[in-house]
């Protein structure tokens, strides 16, 4: 009940069946019509017994059988892809190497094999050695798949020059992704009208990018939500659109993907572009890449990586900090370590990392990454904060 909005008057023939200290109608019912309403989110991690709440409603009130499983979901999605594809169409897809795009790629490749043409856009905003490592890992874990790498970094940095506002950055990056899709199809020699575009959209992406009529607002724009420009004749295919992150990981296991791919921390489509507060430049991206690589290495070596839902470094190039290195004064960047625990990624708690580990990570970043002289740790949960900073 963290937001403060509430219903103040019940509809006719409804009664209150739950309340809190600040909300008299936390849950309501009309027994005759078998209609129920709640003033909170039973589906999120922060709601105690939330899954049991939904299960009781589905099985006991609605009379559902509870026979749904991930194997059936995979089969339904494969059949749906085949029915949309026909005999002369191809699917192209941007693969980042993250959980969502890896699982989506594995699902489509299982359905259509070589008629799936994946590519990776190197925006210049990927993590350290990301393009090389993703290509190697994806081709090893999904036998028969060939991943094409497109270097578009010059164009991305050129278009982002002087841009600091987060939504503007997201929209520019989203537009450049679409243009990269178009070039990829052209280079493959495939007719656009015969191609479908695979996107790894998840349900939280849809929720955060959509505002229905009423007081709700768009939290942030996701580059892979909202379809394609009118000029493009390519239809979008989103097989993961109704799944949360934990369900996507279960689907990945069902498809035979290894632990390394399934449990990889999420990485946003705009990449480091939204982890650099302010204008993203090649120089600031290089600094952030080095700090993030140290952070990930220490988390893995200490055994904490798999205990964390998502961890990353945020660079604050607009905030300078005075420091001392040896006998010299420095005036350099501040970075922030972020780590959260979550299953659905609609809610998240900051991770209580051991102080000794934070100290080791901080010392390594300050001593090894030129351009950073101060490290902070983010202790904000979602809500009220979001997981990413922008």
The helix/strand order is EEEHHEHEHEHHEHEHHHEEEHE
Our measurement of the CA-to-CA distance between the termini, rounded to an integer number of angstroms, reads: 24 Å
**Helicity, as a percent range:** 25-40%
Quickly count the helices: 11
Q: What is the strand arrangement across the widest sheet? A: 6-5-4-7-8
Poorly predicted residue ranges: 211-227
**What is the residue-mean pLDDT, rounded to a whole number?**
87
Proportion of strand residues:
15-25%
**Count of β-strands:** 12
Shape: globular
**Could you tell me the radius of gyration in angstroms?**
23 Å
Largest sheet: 5 strands, parallel
Global structural class: alpha/beta
What characteristics describe this protein?
four-stranded mixed beta sheet, 390 residues, 11 helices, single chain, alpha/beta, 12 strands, 19% strand
Outline the structure in words.
36% of the residues lie in helices and 19% in strands. It has a 5-stranded parallel β-sheet, with helices on both faces. Strands 9, 10, 11 and 12 form a 4-stranded mixed β-sheet that branches. Strands 1-2-3 form a 3-stranded antiparallel β-sheet, with no helix packed on it. About 4% of the residues have low confidence. It is globular. The two termini are 24 Å apart. It has 11 helices and 12 strands. Strand 5, helix 4 and strand 6 form a beta-alpha-beta unit. It is of the alpha/beta class. The longest helix has 23 residues. Helix 2 packs across helix 3, helix 3 crosses helix 8 and helix 5 runs antiparallel to helix 6.
